[in-house]
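To: structure subgroup
Subject: Chain for Friday's discussion

All,

I'm putting the inputs and outputs inline so they're searchable in the archive.
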Amino acid sequence: MIVRRLVLVFSIALCGSLALAAGAYAAGGGFGPGKMSFSSTAANATVGKSGPAGPYLNVSVNQGYNSFQPTHPHGPRTVMYSTMVFYSDFNPATGVGGSGCFVVPASDFTVARGLQSASLHTTLTADEQCPGFGTPVGKGGAGFAGGGGGGGGAGLTLPITVDVTWTGNGAITKYSDRFSLSCLGYAQDGTNVSSDSAGGAMITTSDLGQLAADFADVSSSDGTFDISGTPQPPCFGY
C-alpha cells in the first residue's frame, strides 16, 4: 500500500512538471512553435517485494511521444511517436541481472478503454534497443535509463520474450493540470489530463519464468501545447 501511494504521488508530481519537459524537448528539436495535442498510454509492473533474496523485475511501457537523448553528450535529442519498453531484472539464483530500453512494434502493446486491462506480448532484441536514453514526453524528464550504443541491454542476454497481462481493480484516479511557462522570448501554455488505474499483473519472461507483480498500474494521458518563440538552453539548465 505504501508503495502504491508513493507511486501515485510521484506520478502527480511528474505531470506537474510537464511544461518544463515540453520546453526542454522543444529546445532539443522535438516540438516547434504552434499548437499540438498528444496522448499516451502506459503500464508498469514490478516484482521486488520479496526482499534481496528474491527476484527483481520491472517492465514499463509507454506508447506515445518518447524522447531520446544520444549517449554522446552533445548529440541532438529526438522525439518520436513510439512504443518504448524499459526492462530490468535480477535473478538471485544466478547472480545475473541487467536492464535495457527498447522500441517495439505498436501492436505488441494494447490497453483497453477504461484502463482495466492491458497486455504486452513482445520479444526484446538487440536491433530494438533505443536510439539513446529514453524518457516519455510529459513525464517531467524522469525517464528510462539505458540507450542504444550505450549499454542499452547491459547485463541482459537477448533476445528475451516478455508477456505481461494487467488487470485493474475497478478504481481510476484522475488528475488535471493547466500550466504556462515563459523565458527569454519563449512561451507555452498547455493542459494535461491523466488517469491511473492500480491493480495486478502476471509477468512471464524467458529470463525469470512466471511471476506475480507486487505493484502494477495502467495509465493514460491527454494534453495540449501552444508554443511560441524558440526555447533557449539557459532556461532549462543545459
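Points worth raising on Friday:
Residues 2-16 form the longest helix (15 residues).
The mean pLDDT is 80.

D.
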